Amino acid sequence: MSRASSAPSAPARRMRPLYAAGFTTAFGAHGIAASLGSDAEGAVTSLLVLGGLLALYDGAEVVLKPVFGTLADRIGARPVLLGGLVAFAAASALYAVVDSPGWLWAARLGQGAAASAFSPSVSALVARLNPAARHGRAFGGYGFHKSLGYTLGPLFGGVLVRAGGLRLLFAVLAVLGAAVAVWAAVAVPVVAPLPKARQTLLDLARRLAEPAFLAPASALAAATAALSAGVGFLPVSGRAAGLGAVATGAAVSLLAACSTVVQPRAGRALDSGRLTTRAGLPAALLLAAAGLGCAMLPGLAGVLSAAALIGSGTGLITPLGFAALASSTRPERLGQTMGAGELGRELGDAGGPLLVAVVASRTTLAHGYAVLGSLLALGAALGLAGGWSRKSNT
Description:
Elements: H1 3-6, H2 12-36, H3 47-75, H4 77-98, H5 101-128, H6 135-187, H7 201-209, H8 211-240, H9 245-272, H10 277-294, H11 299-327, H12 334-362, H13 365-386
């Protein structure tokens, strides 16, 4: 492929602030989540408080992402994106200025609600600002920047908290959110909402139950479940094998790095026709399932191979899944579809570690990996039998 043919049809200046918005939500989510437990200022007084603050952000996303996705279809994705970024900056500034343990709850809730607004809006804009033939590359780039945020958030969040406490981290997030909002306001064009037929709740339920939505959304949820389980429990496996903090930390970093590297390459392969969703989604689920199988092996080799396979499988699924959702949805319903797809990922994010933990509490951690891995392998088999494809009549 020549350099000319690989140039994006939408100007890069339009896409970069969208990618920056994805980085912002990921950096903020994991940066704060990883830093709350090390808070030394008295805001996090117990494990119960820590759990509540973590759940508050995710709970807001679960409830509000479909709502804001539907709003983006009604009034346009750009104003919802800008409103979400401004609200994220304001919520972050709230705790940075007030510095009260009680206001930390309000700030965390505000950040979750704001991220719920601009996440599906960004996905809808990425789809509408790029032709269908470039959706794989576009969503691969978006996923790359989100994964970069997930990777760098805990690292730089910890540095900021050590230097100036949680207030400094929230202040940096306020500046980041405001800067991206200004950038998006300048560079992202107005994308007018499209006329659409009236839709009842029954119509929505039927649409979301169709294989064209359910298959990629389920794959995205399953991949996120494997990723979250890997991030949460691979360090436990490493410690049980006598590995130190450096080795277990390297495993989690490897997982994130593999996901980050694979996503843009998978997107380009999809656009060029070298990869299809019919083959790619089941293969990615099998990769992640194999990673969970490797997690059952003792020692460093098992942990590192598990991290590499889970990260690669997740990185492969993300651009393929979102490109499939975009191609199977009428443009006037993109926000709603992306919001529902993001909801599935949030459920997988919570459900994967929970499933592993429940099974492990009754048997062993290896059995927990085995159960989740078996579900992913079953999903791959069903996907092959159902014939996932990029095109749909939805």
